[in-house]
């Protein structure tokens, strides 16, 4: 057998092996999902609903962090600040549709985690609004920080719940160990993701 023929066969063999690997992986995933009573169509629908909720949640989380910085400015424009708070609260009201979609898609663990995260975000925004109306008293800052932290933890829980629902028992879900979760939580609280709030601590 000449070198050209050997090279061709090796190439074909590699292609077939790669294809078989993909088929085996797909069959394994399908089998796992079938045992869990989930079809591939269910997974696609769930993924779309989960993505929509996650995008809305994190966008509003980031908006709330910006709002914290704006409201903490010493030269605050009261009317503009109240308009920003009202805008953030109206944006949050639109989350009802995404939570409703999760309730349809399930499972119950994801729906419950989504409701907890949405309620945590709402409580945080309401506390910011009340703080502004009260003239930004210093003694209320601790409550705002605690509500922010509660929302961050709730957001992590809904993310984990979505991952587990999309990858049931297949071992592909990447989970952070306790030490890494602690380091991530400390980093978020210290740096605020893309925004800072060191003056709040």
Mean pLDDT: 74
The largest β sheet comes out as: none
Weakly predicted, low-confidence segments: 1-36, 191-198
How far apart are the first and last residues' alpha carbons, in Å?
A: 74 Å
Q: Give the SSE order as H and E letters.
A: HHHHHHH
Shape: elongated
What fraction of the residues are assigned to beta strands by DSSP? under 5%
Report Rg: 23 Å
Helix proportion: over 70%
Please characterize this protein's 3D structure.
The protein has 201 residues and is mostly helical. It is 79% helix and 0% strand. The protein has seven helices and no strands. Helix 2 (40-71) packs antiparallel against helix 3 (78-93), helix 2 packs parallel to helix 5 (108-133) and helix 4 (95-105) runs antiparallel to helix 5.
Write the layout of secondary structure elements.
Blueprint (H helix, E strand, L loop, with lengths): L2 H33 L4 H32 L6 H16 L1 H11 L2 H26 L7 H26 L11 H14 L10
Question: In summary, what is this structure?
Answer:
With 201 residues, the chain is mostly helical. It is 79% helix and 0% strand.
């Amino acid at each position: 057998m000449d070198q050209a023929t050997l090279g061709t066969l090796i190439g074909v063999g590699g292609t077939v092996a790669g294809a078989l690997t993909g088929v085996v992986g797909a069959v394994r995933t399908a089998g796992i999902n079938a045992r869990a009573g989930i079809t591939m169509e269910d997974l696609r629908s769930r993924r779309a609903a989960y993505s929509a909720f996650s995008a809305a949640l994190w966008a509003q989380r980031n908006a709330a962090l910006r709002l914290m910085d704006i409201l903490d400015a010493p030269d605050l424009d009261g009317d503009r600040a109240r308009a920003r708070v009202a805008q953030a609260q109206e944006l949050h009201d639109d989350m009802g549709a995404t939570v409703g979609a999760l309730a349809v898609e399930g499972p119950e663990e994801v729906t419950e985690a989504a409701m907890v995260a949405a309620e945590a975000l709402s409580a945080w925004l309401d506390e910011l609004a009340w703080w502004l109306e009260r003239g930004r008293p210093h003694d209320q800052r601790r409550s705002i920080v605690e509500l922010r932290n509660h929302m961050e933890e709730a957001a992590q829980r809904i993310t984990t719940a979505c991952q587990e629902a999309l990858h049931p028992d297949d071992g592909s879900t990447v989970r952070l160990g306790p030490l890494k979760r602690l380091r991530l939580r400390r980093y978020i609280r210290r740096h605020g993701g893309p925004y800072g709030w060191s003056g709040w601590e």
